[in-house]
Amino acid sequence: QVQLVESGGGLVQAGGSLRLSCAASGGTFSNYAMGWFRQAPGKEREFVGTIDRRLGNTYYTNSVKGRFTISRDNAKNTEFLQMNSLKPEDTAVYYCAARASMSTTYDYWGQGTQVTVSS
């Protein structure tokens, strides 16, 4: 059983930056692809991006390409989401998630961290 804990959320002005962290425990971190999702008030949860288990290959939804960067440190069991040039529409609760190598869905989720971008 993998436990995920996000941190780093907060209030930032438009154009600013935040770095979210996702600390994992209870499993072999490098066995899991990791992802970030977000859910804005009144909206469905949406995919933000993902990073593979070991090579560091990433994929992002179009709305964050060029602004957000996902990375991971397998030695520290931590995933990161660097968010630059933040916009008010990035306001949401951000969740990290882990997907086992043979799974087609994300199996484990964190509790989320609030990101609020003021205009």
- Estimate the strand proportion: over 45%
Q: Can you give the helix content as a percent range?
A: under 10%
Q: How many helices? A: 0
Contiguous uncertain segments of 5+ residues: none
Give the H and E element order. EEEEEEEEEEE
| Structural class label | mainly beta
Strand tally, please? Answer: 11
Give a description of the structure.
There is one protein chain. By secondary structure, the chain is an all-beta fold. Helix content is 0%, strand content 53%. The protein is built from no helices and eleven strands. The protein has strands at residues 3-7, 10-13, 18-25, 32-39, 46-51, 58-60, 68-73, 78-83, 92-100, 108-109, 113-118. Strands 2, 4, 5, 6, 9, 10 and 11 form a seven-stranded mixed beta sheet that branches. A four-stranded antiparallel beta sheet has the order 1-3-8-7, with no helix packed on it. Strand 4 and strand 5 (46-51) form a beta hairpin. The chain starts with a strand and ends with a strand.
